[in-house]
Amino acid sequence: MRIASFNINGIKARLPRLLEWLEETRPDIACLQELKTSDETFPAQEIEAAGYGAVWHGQKGFNGVAILARGAQPQEVARGLDGEPEDEHSRYLEAEVNGLRVATIYLPNGNPCPGPKFDYKLRWMKRLRARAAEIWAEEVPAILAGDYNVIPYDRDVWSVGAMADDALMQPESRSAYRALTGDGWTDALAAIHPAGGVWTYWDYQAGAWQRDAGFRIDHLLLSPIAADRLVTAQVDKAYRGREKASDHAPVWVELRD
User: What molecular function does GO assign, one term (predicted)?
Assistant: First the structure.
């Protein structure tokens, strides 16, 4: 079973690239982030025609997440995170797909920091950890997949100095991420590529793609039952180089049935 995560950076603008990727790689489950579209304008018909059932949590203009399942209909479990009732950002969606619990996550960026946006990021990560603990307690095979907007280690960025002041690399962001993995969630890409040097994001500016000046912020965290089934974890890097591509590449894990 292949489970993928893809920050599509605008599903309407990138729909040809999304459908192309789905057809060419055929993931069993695809978690999408940064849809930048409302629930009403989500391209459900096109995705269904590609062979995928879907649930989505949209928001006009920014944010937005979805879970796609090949030949199946995801069964929604949770929408949004508890803890801040006034938080209306569409950043979290959880579903059951073929016996697997899957969450798609678009974690706040947090820039500029320090400031209110960074404070919101840290509060959101605390709320995510609380929900992850609830999933853990159910003892189900689970994957928390998405754009975490955290560079966990120095080996996950092309230049430590260039990103030193960014919210993605602040000690507080890293500590909150490591608290999750410390709870027993396995970072699949880190497990398969312990030496690092594997990027999932390249900015549109300053020739970042051409220079391979990227970093790793898209992560797939596995519960122990899922981690026991881990075969490999990889990045579909070539899709970042296609015309009108997202600034993220898809990442995926393969699990034994």
Answer: double-stranded DNA 3'-5' DNA exonuclease activity
Q: Tens digit of pLDDT for each residue in 60-85?
A: 999 999 999 999 999 999 999 999 99
Query: Does 165 carry a binding-site annotation?
Result: no
Q: Is 109 annotated as a binding residue?
A: no
Q: How far is Cα 101 from Cα 144, in angstroms, rounded to an integer?
A: 9
Number of domains in the chain: 1
Residue 3 burial by CB count (10 A; 0-12/13-18/19+): exposed, middle or buried? buried
Residue 105: Cβ-neighbour burial (10 angstroms; 0-12, 13-18, 19+): buried
Q: Active-site positions?
A: 106, 147, 248
pTM as predicted: 0.98
Does the annotation list 247 as a binding residue? yes
Does the annotation place 149 within a ligand binding site?
Answer: yes
Where residue 126 sits, what CATH number does that domain have? 3.60.10.10
